Amino acid sequence: MFKRFFLVLLTLIMSIVVMLVAAKNSPGEHVISFDEPIILMISMGIVVCLFIPPLVMSFFGNFVVRIISGVYQCFIVFTFMGLIPIGFLIPNGFWTILVSIAGTFVSIASVVVTLFIDRNREVKL
User: Fold this and answer.
1) Which of 66, 92, 98, 106 is the most exposed place for a label (fewest CB within 10 A)?
2) pTM of the model
């Protein structure tokens, strides 16, 4: 349980870091930037709200809950993978690409741990 929660929390932290890095290197007016901190905080709040379901599901060892959590986290993996080519379009987007790759690896590790670690352990009441 602790491994699953820690990896989902680490994925959340990576999501916030990639958002801050992208805000630092914002190329235009219609993107997240440090010039509009309220919009940046709202965006971070939305990301935290989107991570509440996998954080809560990480406490449960039921097979069905773990499958649902793994599928949910796969969408997070696809989001990080989508940020990698977008980083090539951003001027000075090297850090965006680097953090996106790290986030992809952390997310994949989280999915693997969620789906395959401790799956044969019997739950005692």
Assistant:
1) 92
2) 0.85
In the structure encoding, which two tokens stand for residue 62, read together? 């039921």
User: pLDDT for 90-109, tens place per residue?
Assistant: 777 888 899 999 999 999 99
- Residue bearing tokens 């994925």: 11
How many residues can be counted in the chain?
A: 125
3-state secondary structure string across 80-105:
HHHHHHHHHHCCCCHHHHHHHHHHHH
- Give how far Cα 26 sits from Cα of 12, 18, 19, 46, 125, Å: 21, 12, 10, 19, 52
Q: What counts of helices (H) and strands (E) characterise the chain?
A: 4, 0
Triad 28, 31, 32: Cα angle to 5°? 120
Q: What angle do CA 109, 25, 11 make, to 5 degrees?
A: 15
